[in-house]
UniProtKB/TrEMBL annotation:
UniProt xrefs under Gene3D superfamilies: Transferase(Phosphotransferase) domain 1
Any single Pfam family the record assigns to this protein: Pkinase
Keywords, in A-Z order: ATP-binding, Kinase, Nucleotide-binding, Serine/threonine-protein kinase, Transferase
InterPro entries recorded: Kinase-like_dom_sf (IPR011009), Prot_kinase_dom (IPR000719)
Gene Ontology terms for molecular function: ATP binding; protein serine/threonine kinase activity
Domain Protein kinase: 104-378, 393-662
Name of the molecule in the record: Protein kinase domain-containing protein
Length: 663
């Protein structure tokens, strides 16, 4: 054998070994090993990743499959143009699609509707998924294919973030392509279940517990898409676009109204067919005429909420909204005259109040999805993650002494989550079962109703004994922002990325009907997720609130509760130290956020060079520390707006979201 033959044989053996290891790791769902091998492999990487993706798909490891397919997509994009046009002028999907090489085979038709046809398909690289084909009408004399393609392409680019959505109650979009000038194909995960419309038909109508279960999940999905930047509007929520999975307890939001947006982007369709697009019994008043021009309806978060309310009506009544109208063209008149249809007799007061929050005639009067998640009706059906006990698996942070320790636990309901144990410094003479303490825990159980993409999900708050409180939270993989900074300044693009998400979370909690104050924002209470680098706000200051309610704690009012370097001047030297806890406010949260911006920009905590608590307090009263001179003017102004000494001068989170530095 020649040296060349030997080298080739060795390379082939090495490639085969890499392929074998990658496929095995994918089949096992071992994400870390898959990532390591993908970085290591240099030869024939695309083909290996495709084979491994198929193994992952066969074993149900969708996360591993998507990462491998994304790698293939990036490899192909670097080698080919976005699209390829053949001599006949037909444009086909680019070879960079991560689901197929050239084609896919339809296995069966899953459903047909006015907006398109849904099929189960098998692609030529062995991926089984669902497709929805949207064929837009073209007028030969009025439409130039190239112009139609350009308009649709612009709309598709605006919707590319559909494929980035990651939520348990939203169908996973895998790819969007445009095989013909007026044809769009959406690739989605294949779901096992039936539409909520079919589910209701089989059941006649749903009991309130099931309505609460499904409504919580729909609201969670809406809160997620509405919190995106820019917000994502569904446009066509109705019971046919909600899938009840085979276990009959979980739902997925499907069929985002892309077809509506595409039709509006092609001029002749809107001109020749001025009636509003969508499912009319679920359309909000502002979409059906009146104040607005019906040929150009304004879809919004509020119109999504109205449509969700109409879905609640169908769940409660078993009938479509306005079914008594007969002809759908009578619906706008009926709606303008009487408003939303009335729920049937027998519905609870809580359900009626919840429904009214969704179907207020004026868009501004409807509650947001986040607010609805905290509504009393949904709270009736909340189930804590434990029955009565849990087992610590490992210590995640703390010293193991029990005070503010965080553990990974497994509950007696077999739910894996995180717990934070808060031990109050109770002294002899403090009253056990203090009514104020109980009220504080009860009020902060509202934390369990928070639903925001940048806030840790609180599952339950339990009072273990009169001096111990245990907070149950979702289990997250990541590091604190403090660890991420690691005493090195961050580039402004990262400061912007993280600040935007923190501000979004603060805007959400500060604008609830009953505003939530964090009380202890600092870089140790901000988590950066390992997988996505997404921010999660953690460590809400329940311990501070509880400590302030224990009698002796207020006697020692010279020592403020919280993280001193991030505390605002009004907390350090209050006019009324006995009532210090009342001074925790939206403004003190904004100051603490500004101090986190300082740490991101400088790499160190505020006043890091001062060792005594007295010295830090004195410096805080003089004002916030100056940013490094290398910071841009926009960042410097943004920081200044967070750290005015007078809290009334500080900008709100809503105002900060509009600042040039973030925009």
């Amino acid at each position: 054998m020649s040296e060349t033959d030997g080298a080739n044989a060795g390379a082939t053996a090495s490639t085969n070994t890499d392929s074998h290891f990658l496929e095995s790791a994918a089949a096992d769902g071992n994400l870390e090993v898959v990532k390591y091998l993908v970085k290591k492999i240099e030869v024939d990487k695309s083909a290996m990743c495709l084979r491994a993706a198929k193994r992952a798909a066969d074993e149900g490891h969708s996360k591993v499959m998507n990462i491998l397919l994304k790698e293939v997509q990036e490899l192909r994009v670097s080698q080919a143009d976005h699209r390829e046009t053949n001599p006949a002028g037909r444009t086909r999907s680019r070879s960079g699609s991560h689901l197929f090489d050239n084609d896919w085979n339809k296995i069966r038709t899953l459903g047909r509707g006015a907006s398109g046809t849904v099929h189960e398909v098998l692609t030529d690289i062995g991926i089984r998924c669902a497709t929805k084909t949207i064929a837009l009408p073209m007028q030969l004399n009025a439409d130039e294919p190239a112009e139609v393609r350009k308009k649709i392409d612009r709309s598709l680019n605006a919707e590319k973030n559909l494929c980035e959505l990651q939520h348990d109650n939203i169908v996973k979009y895998l790819y969007i392509c445009q095989p013909e000038p007026a044809t769009v194909v959406l690739f989605m995960e294949l779901l096992d279940g039936c539409s909520l419309d079919t589910f209701i038909t089989k059941s006649s109508k749903l009991d309130e517990e099931t309505i609460g279960l499904f409504s919580t999940q729909i609201c969670s999905a809406l809160a997620y898409i509405h919190s995106q930047e820019p917000p994502l509007i569904h446009r066509d929520i109705n019971c046919r676009n909600i899938v009840v999975l085979a276990d009959k307890t979980r739902i997925k939001l499907v069929d985002f109204g892309l077809s509506i947006k595409l039709e509006q982007s092609v001029s002749h369709i809107s001109a020749s067919n001025p009636e509003p697009k969508g499912t009319m019994p679920f359309m909000a008043p502002e979409l059906l005429g009146g104040k607005d021009d019906s040929s150009n309806p304004h879809y919004s978060k509020s119109s999504d909420i109205w449509a969700f309310g109409c879905s609640v009506y169908q769940m409660a009544s078993g009938e479509l909204p306005f079914s008594e109208c007969g002809n759908r063209y009578n619906i706008p008149e009926q709606l303008q005259k009487n408003g939303a249809p009335r729920l049937p007799n027998g519905c609870s007061t809580e359900l009626r109040a919840f429904y009214d929050c969704c179907t207020a005639r004026e868009p501004k009067d409807r509650k947001s999805a986040g607010d609805l998640l905290g509504h009393k009706f949904l709270a009736l059906f909340e189930s804590p993650p434990i029955l009565c006990d849990w087992e610590n698996i490992r210590l995640l942070s703390g010293e193991g002494a029990g005070c503010a320790d965080i553990h990974e636990v497994l509950t007696d309901k077999q739910i894996k989550c995180a717990t934070k144990t808060l031990k109050l410094q109770v002294q002899q003479g403090d009253q056990p079962n203090n009514a104020s303490s109980i009220n504080a825990i009860t009020s902060d159980r509202n934390l369990c109703r928070l639903r925001h993409d940048n806030i840790v999900k609180f599952l339950h708050i339990a009072e273990k004994d009169h001096a111990t409180c245990v907070v149950f939270m979702e289990l997250l993989e990541g590091v604190t922002l403090e660890t991420y900074i690691d005493k090195k300044p961050l580039a402004e693009r990262y400061i912007r990325k993280f600040s935007k998400q923190i501000c979004s979370a603060l805007k959400y909690i500060h604008n609830l009907d009953e505003p939530v104050i964090h009380r202890n924002i600092n870089c140790s209470n901000i988590l950066i997720l390992s997988e996505t680098k997404k921010v999660k706000l953690i460590g809400f200051g329940l311990a501070i609130k509880l400590d302030n309610l224990v009698s002796h704690a207020n006697d020692n009012s010279a020592t403020p509760k919280g993280t001193l370097a991030f505390m605002s001047p009004e907390l350090i030297a209050p006019d009324d130290p006995i009532n210090r806890s009342a001074l925790y406010s939206k403004g003190s949260d904004i100051w603490a956020f500004g101090c986190s911006v300082f740490q991101m920009a400088s790499g160190i905590r505020p006043f890091d060079d001062i060792k005594s608590m007295f010295g830090i307090g004195k410096k805080i009263n003089e004002g916030a520390p100056a940013l490094p001179t290398s910071c841009s003017a926009k960042l410097s102004e943004f920081y200044k707006f967070c750290t005015f000494k007078n809290r009334n001068q500080r900008k709100s989170a809503t105002e900060l979201m509009e600042h040039d530095f973030l925009v």
